[in-house]
Design brief:
Elements (H helix, E strand, L loop, with lengths): L4 H18 L1 H5 L6 H22 L13 H22 L4 H8 L2 H12 L6 H14 L13 H24 L4 H22 L7 H28 L2 H7 L3 H11 L7 H18 L1 H4 L14
Length: 302
Amino acid sequence: MQHRPENINGILAGVFSVVLWSGLPVLRGMTDLPPLQVAAVALGAAALLSGGTTRLRAASVPGCPAAGGTGYWIAGVGGLAGALYFYFLALGLGDPAVVTLVTYTWPLGFVLAAELRAGRRPQPAMLTGAGIAFAGITPLLAGGGGGPTPTAAWLGGMASGGAWIAFSLYLRGAGPLPAGAWAGLFGRAALVVLCLHLALETTLRGTPADWLAAAAIGIGPYGLAFMTWGYALRHGPAGLLGTLTYAVPVLSGAALVALGWSPADPRLALAAAAVAGGALIASGRLTAVRPKRHWPRRRLTG
């Protein structure tokens, strides 16, 4: 099967987005700023990048859909801000590879939540995939080579995943957002997180490297990645792109182990395979690629 040029470009854009998302825990490990401060800097950088891209395209900057609605502020702004804060908090409390795997069980929760929200009963494949994923990460409760991951880190990763589910449900209902809408969403989330930082944390001066790493999170995983992912969804095969997202925790874990920031534990590899495989089963990708058998019909005679 030959892919059209636009499909190839869409696939490449999707791979680029996945690689950027996979580098998020590495960038977080390069800055010693507190979680809310990092989130505020990252979201602010993402807002500036999105707004600048819109102006370069000489396009109008439309407002965010239902920018004053309750769903927008709770699930949109709050979901985005919460996803970053709880993830950054959890990364500072436990093994970053374990935290990333726990956080990235959220696509499974999103699939189940989307089905329930639509009034449909979850399919057996969804429940089976979720069971496999959670069974795979259970052995990590005992800790990897670097010792047990604190309960607070697990809870932070789960809270980040829950925030991603809420944010994704909002995006599903709002539809595709133009660059101007992304700028407004990032900007409002940055303002909320900044207020929380000033109220709950002590602002650290840090080093230029700390600030650059925090800004790089907004430019890469939360700036360029969102834009290239939007291009990928418009020009690439949706089924393959959905499958690519399940590689994020695997690539993140491999990078952290390679850098020596997480121990090379067999349970980590098993958990990564369980999360990716469980997500594939839950989404129906594995059954979708299974070829159908066509039995020859008997020719009736007589």
